[in-house]
Description:
9-stranded mixed β-sheet, 34% helix, alpha/beta, single chain
Amino acid sequence: MPRRGGPIQKRHIEHVKKVIVVASGKGGVGKSTIAVNLAFSLAMLSHRPRVGILDLDIFGPSIPTLMGLQHSDDPHLTPAGALLPIINHGVPTMSMGYLVPRPPPDSAEFEGAIVWRGLMVQKAVQQLLFDVDWRDAGGSGPGLDVLIIDMPPGTGDVPLTLGQLVVVDGAVIVSTPQDIALTDVRRGISMFKKISVPITGLILNQASFLCPSCNTAHELFGTSANASRLGIPLLAQLPLVGGVSWGGDRGIPYVLEGKHAGGKDGRAGEMWRDAMNEAASNIWELVHS
């Protein structure tokens, strides 16, 4: 039956100029890590845009850990009742992980699981999208030039709710080179096309392993030719680098502190940061063209 009153009108997120989603149909491909590092690469562009990160993975939020904020205090509220982002490394963030009970830092307890049905998930997504004040200085300064949204894997309620309600300026797809991952990525790309979200391009994670002795690249998980069949621009091919995982576990984005990871990443670490920074520059140009 047709919806009464006509179709839902997409709207902009208040105090946000551009919205970029980072998504993948497949879990475990490094999407959240890429989202965080992309946000910082954008923030370090020459004109220093103001960038924020929104974690829309309701059931498995990773942004608090990747930003070193898993033990932060609960978000404050504005006088109007909007959530104020939690900031680390100069970048404001919001996540469901900040809004649910968490064990104390020295506790051996597991963080509580979120067990919700569809309507509750949709309500939480709408609150994170529209009830956060992204302005600087506690709601009185300038807004964001770009909001990076870290999406959950799959094609369920969350991406559909986002696509129906919000004007999205671009979707960055993350995958590893295996066919099993790319098959699910194709489904994600198809979903975004159906809800009229423009696809900006693909970041291929763990595209190769660079031998530290001879600097020879080995494609352990498949070739980039597999990804080329997706029919979308290839924004970056990121090598497998141990320091990326090291920094993520400690809340230090690799583009900020890559060399801090024991100095063992060598040329591969430089390639990773250079590729991410180049991708950020290209993404900025594409969403502003």
